[in-house]
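Quick illustration, no need to memorize.
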Amino acid sequence: MKNLALAPLPDHNRRDDPLWQKLWHNYSHVITPLRTLGLVTDVELCGGEYNVVADLPDGTHLLIAAGECLPVDPAELAGWTVIRAHHDNPTVDYLVYDSTDGGDQAANGSATAPMLGAITEWLIRNEHHLHLPDFHLRIEALLASLQAAPTRPEATKSACHCLFAHPTNDAERAALNKDLDYARSIGDLFGIQVALVRLTTASDCPARKEQP
């Protein structure tokens, strides 16, 4: 596989701002996957309101917020909103994801994986006119980084009963990877999204937390 670097850091002088650095660190679990996909991603500070912004090659961007703005501490999040927007052309605004109260994905609340899965699915569906460089290779890199996370051999003592079943041992992870490969081979966008959720939220599975 081609060795792909993360998208470059944003080019501005706010990178020395302690608040910007704190937000960049606090939301690295959102920023790093987006940079893995090749999107230059920034933390926007605007009059005390904070958002994560990922630039798209067509001049639009993904605005990631929490209905209005992001709290400094992600633990205070109640839900996510993702909007495809343009600074000068509001006619292109499109709601990609909304897990805030009353949103279509409200059941997901503040969970990060479903939000990132929805972004990935939207990018896949729109890749033909966004012209994202090396996008399919970057999808592979993102999935490979998720698949590489180790499982605990003793985790077979407890079964996962979550809505999206998590792999709790190496055999289950191998089976999920096989399902994921098949979903990618047939272009099953929903299957890819579900696999992303199952992989990225595995560390929070109650079955794993029950292990000694």
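Residues 149-157 have pLDDT under 50 and may be disordered.
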